[in-house]
Amino acid sequence: MQRNVLDAQLADIKQQLQAMGEQVRSALQQALASLQQGDAAQARQVVDGDAGINRMEHELEERCIRLIATQQPVAKDLRKVTAALRIAGELERMADLAVDIARAVIRQQPSPADPVMPDILRMAAVVEEMIRQALVAYVNEDLAAARNLAVLDDEADRLYRGILEELFSRRPDDQGRIAQAMAFAFIGRYLERMGDHATNVGEGVVYIHSGERIDLN
Amino acid sequence: MLSIEIKVEALHAWYGNDEVLHGIDLAIEPRSVTAIIGPSGCGKSTFIRCLNRLHETNPGARVAGHVWVGGEDVYRMDPIDVRRTIGMVFQRPNPFPTMSIFDNVALGLKFAGVKDRRRLRARVEESLAMAALWDEVKDRLHQPAMSLSGGQQQRLCIARALAVEPRVLLMDEPTSALDPISTMRIEELVQNLKQTYTIVIVTHNMQQAARIADQTAFFLDGHLIEVGPTSKVFTKPDDKRTEDYVSGRFG
């Protein structure tokens, strides 16, 4: 091992990505808590917290670019850096979707007592597990965990379809209920997109280790 | 079936009793650049010196195996023809020190029997132009070659090699004694020359191999460990030893 500087910088990038991932997870948890409790103030915290996550992405990007410019990584080292750039982008998008959920809570005030709520929370639990596993896969270089994201994504998609069916079967007898149904449909959609970004992280993990491009979505 | 310009089969080389190449098989397409990389002492220079039979000129040196260039068995050719078919450029520019710029390039042609002065001049100009040196020397062709800078001298050596119209150009670390600008000029030149010639280049500079080679071969301890498209060798090599070498973890 003669590349201590490069190895140390790669380890830093990994640590920073992990920290960013934890922030994204906590943004989602907070957005869901605000939804469950109808708590606009808490939702606002998610919106405000997004700038910090964006900053983390830019810092990570800077580090990766500096590393490429100064260390000229190749082969697996290079794959680690390019995958880190991509994963940072995926995490940032996930954080934006958590913000979208929080904004829906603030603007449309979806009722915590709505009958679709348990399904939304079930789906959210699956998506949260996907984010957790994507991070585990990345940090522990765990290919099985990465590939398992495809299974979880199917589960999230199945729950999403169920939610839509339930919402569209409602009778549109008043304007307020239509707005409610729309809000939940969007929230389901945001969660579904988050799951897709988590599978992209898994694809990045597989690429780092094998150079292979697979589709987990 | 892709056409093959250089074919090497079961190539072994010795210095006295020391076997330094242990059976190399390699195929090189025409009009391509192949980089040979590997740590010092891995046999890469010996390998290209076997391609033009320079290795056997060392006392006690020996070669076994086959090398074909353009379908011809190099080890059955007249050595003079071998040198004409396969040009070579070395690590340090080595123009003939007492000769002018013009004579350095013209000498090989004179040996080849070109007497007509107009033809001689035209070929010298063409060779200098191909080596991207013409514009810099056209008004001083009869000045000593040693009046040129190191980078210019190396391009003069390339022009000298090209003058006799070889099929193959071997380059043994051609930029290791040059500054970055001269290095870039040689690299650009290699890109242009490969439209006409098949080029095999030994380099210690991994980024150089990555920049200019179509194919990269990694040698270690006299064995060819891995050969493949350069982009693959530098992004996803098959062999762990290649990965460790190209990522700077040994050598």
UniProtKB/TrEMBL annotation, chain A:
The residues forming a coiled coil are 3-30
Give the record's GO CC terms. cytoplasm
Where does this protein reside within or beyond the cell? Cytoplasm
An example GO biological process term is: phosphate ion transport
UniProt cross-references to Gene3D superfamilies, sorted A to Z: Phosphate transport system protein phou homolog 2, domain 2
Q: Is Transport one of the keywords UniProt gives this record?
A: yes
| Annotated InterPro entries | PhoU, PhoU-like_sf, PhoU_dom
Using the record's annotation, list all stretches that form the PhoU domain. Answer: 18-105, 120-203
For the keyword Transport, the answer is yes
UniProt keywords, alphabetically: Coiled coil, Cytoplasm, Phosphate transport, Transport
Q: Function of this protein?
A: Plays a role in the regulation of phosphate uptake.
Sequence similarity = Belongs to the PhoU family.
> What binding partners and quaternary form does the record give?
Homodimer.
Protein's recorded name: Phosphate-specific transport system accessory protein PhoU
Automatic annotation (TrEMBL), chain B:
| Biological process annotations from GO | phosphate ion transmembrane transport
Q: Which keywords annotate this record?
A: ATP-binding, Nucleotide-binding, Transport
Q: Which superkingdom is the protein from?
A: Bacteria
Coiled-coil intervals, chain numbering: none
Please provide, alphabetically and separated by semicolons, the GO molecular function terms listed in this UniProt record: ATP binding; ATP hydrolysis activity; phosphate transmembrane transporter activity
A GO CC annotation given for this chain:
membrane
Xref: CDD domains? ABC_PstB_phosphate_transporter
Q: Does the keyword Nucleotide-binding apply?
A: yes
What sequence ranges are listed for the domain ABC transporter?
A: 6-246
Q: Which SMART domains match?
A: AAA (SM00382)
Kinase listed as a keyword: no
| InterPro entries registered for this protein in UniProt | AAA+_ATPase, ABC_transporter-like_ATP-bd, ABC_transporter-like_CS, P-loop_NTPase, PstB-like
The protein in question is named Phosphate import ATP-binding protein PstB
User: What organism is the protein native to?
Assistant: Alicyclobacillus cellulosilyticus
Upper lineage is: Bacteria, Bacillati, Bacillota, Bacilli, Bacillales
